[in-house]
Amino acid sequence: MSDVVRTRFAPSPTGYMHIGNLRTALFAFLYARSQEGRFILRIEDTDQGRYVEGATDIIYDTLRTAGLHHDEGPDVGGDFGPYVQSQRKDMYRKYAEELVAKGEAYYCFCRRDDKEAESSEGYNRHCRSLSAGQVKEQLAQGMPYVIRQRIPLEGTTSWDDLVYGTISVDNRTLDDQILLKSDGMPTYNFANVIDDHLMGITHIIRGSEYLSSNPKYILLYRAFGWEMPRYIHLPLINGQNPDGTISKLSKRHGAVSFQALVEDGYLPEAIINYIALLGWSPKSEQEIFSLDELVKLFSVTGVHKSPAVFDYKKLDWVNSQHIVMMSDEEFADKARPYAGIDSTPLEGKWTKIASLLKPRVNKLSEVAEKTAFLKQLGAYDTEMYINKKNKSTFESSIRIIENVIGALDAEEQWNEEALYNTLSSLAQSLGIKEGQLFWPVRIALSGLMATPGNATDILFILGKEESVSRLEKGVEMLKKASLA
Questions:
Q1: Band (113; pLDDT cuts 50, 70, 90)
Q2: Consecutive H or E run containing 467
Q3: Tens of pLDDT along 70-109?
Q4: pLDDT > 70 fraction of the chain, expressed in percent and rounded
Q5: Considering only Cβ atoms within 10 Å of each terminal Cβ, which end of the chain, N or C, has fewer?
Q6: Which residues make beta-bridge pairs with 156?
Q7: What mean pLDDT comes out for the span 276-298?
Q8: Angle value at C-alpha 261, between 259 and 265, nearest 5 degrees
């Protein structure tokens, strides 16, 4: 086996990139990079019935967007290609027939609807005991067949997993799996063993759902006399149900694909950061990482055995931390498509708006909701004007807003500093605290209890004409409410 660590990510092109698949790719990438090894991409499309047009491009786009650049693969080449299994179809038969010759596999002529070949536990090994003459006769007649693995009927198969330790499985619990299908295509369980060997894969990293199949893979390595790779099985990823219970992560738990999370406004680097923490932990309290930091810190000893739970609240927090770490310019650029302010009066104020939003959003998709009031003042409840802390009532709010309108009418410099100084001076002349003045003004401008930015920020963004219009509407609403 090569002294250079070689890991692989071998997805099937069946649609979107599920979070579990992406975590497998991430851990395979991190382990290879942490060991100065090579990370290989192989497309496993032996199940043509599940093939989805365009899915391979999704795989490429996801890995590229996530920053998981592979050293070898269908799109970049390498010394062990082709890297698409359907393009390797002709090489699998000779290995299946080699196993037949060794007595480690056998021809099976049973049809799927052949009830005599089925038992309550699956295939009953009907063709396992056929004589050489019977096999030769069936082949001569052109009978369709598959090639099945001849699993030992006694003993155990054991291996040392780098996460789960020593695992032993009773061979009697294993079925004689199909290696080569009747159309000549290999099954996934056969092709991945052949390809891993031929591509020199030293460490196989995959989900723990493959633990039950692993003994059959090991028996294939032994049947060929090949050196086995090391195995690293990752814990399951569960989702939390509405009733608080957990179950395997699925669509019912929300967005579970990388593409859907990105479309929902999560940053790729934050998604990768969070997924790294699903089943792995560093030897520190740090939780926010760049990909380079993850490479430096990653160790198999940090991989957990117990299932991880996908927590959207934790993902929101991780994403918010990555947003805060962005430069103001980068955030403004990435958030702008979500704001819908192009070709509106707000377009020229976007830099200011973005600076207010940056520390107040968990994900980019929240930008639209948090900026909606700037584009249009929605209906709101006048009860919001009443605030005990600021001693705000309908009557006091009317008096304050009318005075503010008068002060703003005379305002010649429409910038944050000038607006703040004007309102601050007005508060002093009215004999009230700034908070008492700013509260009703902000409510009238936004119709919201909480806003990104204070009253002077909103005044600056809206401009003089729109600000005064909203304030006048607020007075009108308050007068009607006070008479009710």
A1: low
A2: helix 464-483
A3: 999 999 999 999 999 999 989 999 999 999 999 999 999 9
A4: 96
A5: C
A6: 170
A7: 96
A8: 115
Q: What is the DSSP string of 351-403?
A: HHHHHHHGGG-SSTTHHHHHHHHHH-PPP--GGGG-BTTTTB-HHHHHHHHHH
- Note the pTM of the prediction, 2 decimals: 0.90
Q: Which of the following is catalytic: 102, 136, 248, 251? A: 251
Q: Is pLDDT of 116 > 60?
A: no
Is 216 in the active site? Answer: no
pLDDT for the residue numbered 115: 47
Distances in Å between the alpha carbon of 313 and those of 189, 237, 274, 317, 335? 37, 16, 11, 6, 20
Q: What is the CA radius of gyration of the chain?
A: 32
Which sign, positive or negative, has the C-alpha torsion 369, 288, 4, 162?
negative
Task: Report which DSSP code applies to 389.
Answer: T
Q: How far apart are CA 275 and CA 279, in angstroms?
A: 8
CA distances, 176 to each of 80, 101, 104, 121 (Å)? 29, 16, 10, 11
- Asked if residues 335 and 357 have their Cβ atoms less than 8 Å apart, the reply is yes
Distance separating alpha carbons of residues 101 and 77, to the nearest angstrom: 34
Distance between CA atoms of residues 450 and 439, nearest Å: 10
Residue 175 vs residues 107, 186, 217: alpha-carbon distances, Å? 15, 17, 12
The 10 Å Cβ neighbour count of residue 306 is 8
pLDDT score of 85: 92
Tokens of 294: 């993850």
Element (H, E) at 60: helix 55-66
Q: How far, rounded to the nearest angstrom, does the alpha carbon of residue 375 sit from its chain's CA centroid?
A: 32
E strand or H helix at 183: none
Q: How many helices (H) and strands (E) does the chain have?
A: 18, 14
Distance between CA atoms of 58 and 72, rounded to whole angstroms?
A: 17
- Take residue 406 and report the two structure tokens written for it: 């008068």
Mean pLDDT of 19-25: 95
In which element (H, E) is residue 439 found? helix 434-446
What tokens does 79 get?
């010394």
The per-residue pLDDT for range 183-231, each reduced to its tens digit, is 999 999 999 999 999 999 999 999 999 999 999 999 999 999 999 999 9
Q: What are phi and psi of 403, to 5 degrees?
A: -65, -40
Q: What is the pLDDT of residue 118?
A: 53
Answer with the residue of higher pLDDT: 252 or 320: 320
- The answer to whether the CB of 311 falls within 8 A of the CB of 240 is yes
Tell me the average pLDDT of the chain. 93
Helices (H), 105-213: 132-140, 188-198
Gap between the Cα atoms of 456 and 419, Å rounded: 6
